[in-house]
Every structure is written in structure tokens, then in C-alpha cells.
Amino acid sequence: xxxxxxxxxxxxxxxxxxxxxxxxxxxxxxxxxxxxxxxxxxxxxxxxxxxxxxxxxxxxxxxxxxxxxxxxxxxxxxxxxxxxxxxxxxxxxxxxxxxxxxxxxxxxxxxxxxxxxxxxxxxxxxxxxxxxxxxxxxxxxxxxxxxxxxxxxxxxxxxxxxxx
Length: 164
What we know:
Blueprint: E1 5-9, H1 19-22, E2 30-34, H2 37-46, E3 50-54, E4 61-62, E5 72-75, H3 85-90, E6 93-96, H4 108-125, H5 134-148, H6 152-162
Parallel strand pairs: 1-2, 3-5, 3-6, 4-6
């Protein structure tokens, strides 16, 4: 989808990306870690991203009505506490998945999967320029290759030594 970059705010819960749960996905995405919401929002805004907070509350735009027109950073909160007050008060938009029945919200992994699937399908049908540039593709493939090869540092050192 172009969702190859993930930002984790670890101030409250520490490092929680479990490699067993992620099933190796950390090799294929860039993970950036931040200690607080202020810093990650500042970084994303400086790179031209709009901040979209996902929320189960009625003040959000329904997923089916949400349109991607620029670079977007989606924020998902923890299942117990949701998003921080800072993210909610500094978001450019709010996005809601409509639910029916007694459940107010969905599990975070389910919410992320639904939103990313819907937005990916729309991006593929749109004229919005969302794909990586040829240079970014080469850079990403090289990065993925490095993450996939065991002992890559040793191999690169040996290559550099042999080619001096």
C-alpha cells in the first residue's frame, strides 16, 4: 500500500512489537520508535503528513467517506485507553469504522486491517500519486535485502575489504 513505515510511541508501554507476533514483518517495514506523541507528530508534520486519529466516537468521518488526497499518518490507540489526549487534540481529521450492536470499538489489529485494506483498494483505483519512486524502490529493496541476509555486516565488511 505504501504503508511501509510504522511509528511506535513507547513512552507509556515500552517496546511492545513482539517479533513472534509480527512473524518477521519487521524485515519488510521501517519501524521508528518515539518516546512521546509530541515528537512523532512534529516529525510527521515536518514531512508533510496529515495526522488522522482513528476513534470509535461519533466525531469521526466514517471510513467509507474518507478520501486520501495527501500523505497521511494514521494513529491507532491502545485497546484499553485509546489514543492520547495530545494526539486527539492535534489531529487534522478523525476516522471511524462504523459498528453495530453493543461493541463500541474493534480490536486494534482488526481496526488496522480493515482501514488499511479499504484505503489500499481505493488507492489502487485512484489517480493519487501514492507509489514509491524508482529510487525509493531500489533503496527499499536494498534495505529489505540487508534485513533478510544473515550476517550481512560480516558480508559487507568482507566485500569492502576485498574491494579496497
